[in-house]
Amino acid sequence: xxxxxxxxxxxxxxxxxxxxxxxxxxxxxxxxxxxxxxxxxxxxxxxxxxxxxxxxxxxxxxxxxxxxxxxxxxxxxxxxxxxxxxxxxxxxxxxxxxxxxxxxxxxxxxxxxxxxxxxxxxxxxxxxxxxxx
Length: 133
Known about the structure:
Number of strands: 7
């Protein structure tokens, strides 16, 4: 059985109802695919705390873990690992979004997300986003 990797992801929603997605930069695995921001949960860290940390590191925004709304989870078997990803909705943060890792970002309406190539673990979430946001 491949190793289990726990990753938290955030669906940032602006006042217009659009969702923030980020393009994986060149040099990273799955470069060029669009994803919801987030990252690995470190040992002794909650998924919410990990997402707040990752959003600060990746986008330079501050998010209170208490403001993260549980939304869904993804479970996907990649060749080298099995990904388990709790997904949270975030509608409030402090600071302006500034990509800090060379990634491109875009705001998209939930119904338009299918037009962006996404990693296999993210794509199944799109239907839920369209109906629930």
